[in-house]
Amino acid sequence: MEIARLHLHDPADWPHLRRECLEFFSRCGGRRLKAGPIGHLASLSYEALHQPGTSIVAATVRGELGSMPVGISYAADYGKEACMTAVHPLYRNRRIGSSLLRLQISELGQLHCTVATGHTAALKMCFLAGMHAEGLEMDAAGRPVLNLKGVDIRPAAVKGASPDSNQEGELLCLSLF
Q1: Which of the four pLDDT bands, split at 50, 70 and 90, describes residue 160?
Q2: Of 3, 52, 57, 107, which is most buried by a Cβ count within 10 Å?
Q3: In the chain, which ranges are continuous DSSP H helix?
C-alpha cells in the first residue's frame, strides 16, 4: 500500500481526477459525509488545488488493473473550509484513515476538522492521527460536534520523513520531553 499526496502537473487531468475522488467519497463515505465539503471539492479549480492549505492524499493498492484507491482525504484551507476522509469498507479498521490524516498534518503543518460526537469511528480515526479536541459546539441541526486540530510537532530534523515510518531518528525514536 502506498499513501501519498496528489500531485498534478497537467491541468487537463484535474476534471477526471476530481470526478474519481467525488465518486469514491460517494461510494465509500456513506451518509456521514456532509454536503458542504463534497460541494467544495466538486467546485474546486485546478488553481485552488495548489493553494496553501489545500491537499488531497490517497492510499492506493496495486491490483491486476493498476493502482486502486482504498482511502482518500481532502482538506481545504487547512480543513477550516472542508475536511473529509473516506476509506473503502473492505479496508477499514486498518488505520488507513488515521494514516491519511497524519500525512495531511505532516504536509500542511496543521489540520482542523469537525466531527459529530456520535460518529465514534471518525473520532477514533482523528485521535489516532494525533488530533485533539479544541471545542464543542452544535451543528446546524442542533447536534453536538467536536472541533479537532492536529499540528505537526515533529522536530525540524525529521519533518521531511514519512509520518508513518519509525526509522531510527524519527519521532517514535525521539524523546519529546
Answers
A1: low
A2: 57
A3: 14-28, 35-42, 46-49, 96-108, 120-128
d(CA 174, CA 168): 9
H or E stretch including 153?
Answer: none
Question: What's the burial of 49, exposed, middle or buried (CB within 10 Å: 0-12/13-18/19+)?
Answer: buried
Cα–chain center distance at 120: 17
Higher pLDDT, 124 or 34: 124
Comparing 175 with 67, the larger pLDDT belongs to 67
Residue 9 confidence (pLDDT) above 90: no
Q: Count Cβ neighbours within 10 Å for each residue of 84-117 and write b for 16 or more, e otherwise.
A: bbbbbeebbeeebbbbbbbbbbbebebbbbbbbe
Question: Residue 176: its pLDDT value, please?
Answer: 36
Report whether 44 contacts 18 (CB < 8 A).
yes
pLDDT at 167 over 50: no
Q: Which domains does the chain have, with CATH numbers?
A: 2-163 (3.40.630.30)
